[in-house]
Fold this sequence. Notes:
2 domains; MetI-like fold; mainly alpha; 21 helices; two-stranded antiparallel sheet
Amino acid sequence: MLNYILKRLLYFIPTLFAISLITFIISINAPGDPVEAILNSGATEGQRTDKMAQENAYNQVRHNLGLDLPLFYFSFGNLTDCDSLYRISNPAHRSNLERMAYTYGNWPRISAWYSSLRKLDSRLDDFSSGDSSATVGKSDAKYLINGLYGLYDSCSIRTTILQLSDRISKSEAMKSLLPEFSELKTSFASVLGDRQIYKRYIPSFHWYGLKNQYHRWLSGFVVGDFGISYQDKRPVSSIIRSAVGWTLSLSLASMIISYLIAIPLGVISAARKGSRKDKTITSGLFMLYSLPNFWIATLLVIFLCGGDWLAWFPSPGADWPSASLPFQEWLPQMVWRLVLPLFCWTYGSLAFVSRQMRGGLLNVLGQDFIRTARAKGLEERKVIWQHAFRNSLLPIITLFASVFPLAIAGSFVIEFIFSIPGMGKISLEAITARNYPVLFTVMMFTALLTLSGNLVSDILYAFADPRISFDSKSSNKSK
């Protein structure tokens, strides 16, 4: 058994690696720019109007997020690929330069072209003149330069350069930009004159080492650094830490209550199969199971939490009991506040758990060793609880494995309706706001708990039924 557990723990490593890799791929391809999301979350009217200040702020946030690093440990491609393209902050510029590199195959020339274009753009931003024609020419030139950032075919670039030359030559004041413009024309002529198309067909391999975005993200997750929230710039770890306590408390309490009620009901239903009590239990539980929890939760809030009806329970929008209260006062208030959400969280699982227990017990009650126990004259209660019960727990243990991820994922609906600041509520808010660090952290934790649940289930199988062995030698002997 110990060998099996160690093997399963070793399997965790490649499985978690695959899950983390998939999560990372989804995160980097998610819509939106994380840097812009963080900058806009703290922006007010009138801020970041200066282009240089805006660009510096953008680059600083990008560096803090590790987005100025390569994506992975290595990359495959061809010789037209640039192994340092990730350093360019503007994603649209990166995409266009990648196309240019593939089209012309000479990255050093293309890099020089991009540098001269940036230099002319910066020089144009600093250009000022009282001449109205120069102001109009500057606006037209700015429009053309912005267009060059997105062009890669030679015909379009040539046309735009000719138009730009015409705008600059029309104003005496703008002729001061001619040195930068001449450098731009020369650099593009070098791009065209030194095409190396053959590089497309020669494979290449780039090794980046540990300084890459995936390693930074994964190592941060291992040590509890899950990044920062795009909404309020808080560490995701603090958001998760404050929410996971609520969800775990409700999930574990719901699981305990559900099992304590449903398992005995399942046993009674199986022991008295076909009786009126069996039919009553089955019908009652399935009636509860058929009622949507969001509908029941809404009705409970309307009728029992104030308003025009009864005010037996606090309304969902009311303040939670203060932590400064003495424990003997805080605990009853907290329990009373959680009665309704706990009921809504639990009642739907009673029918499913009891049905699994009933089916497992009926299967065991038809086996030979149960008939032998009855033939010995044992009381029916001892036959069921001492002989059949333990062997009928396998379906319940299988079901128990699915509880682990639910214990941390929470319930979107229940937490939202009752304003519980748990994992389900923050996940829903993260989806709405595209707050991906929170969302992907919850996803990773859910995957981790799913693997843990499967391992715990396998271990509990052996305790519930000693005939089950995960040792290959023992299983071969039994055959």
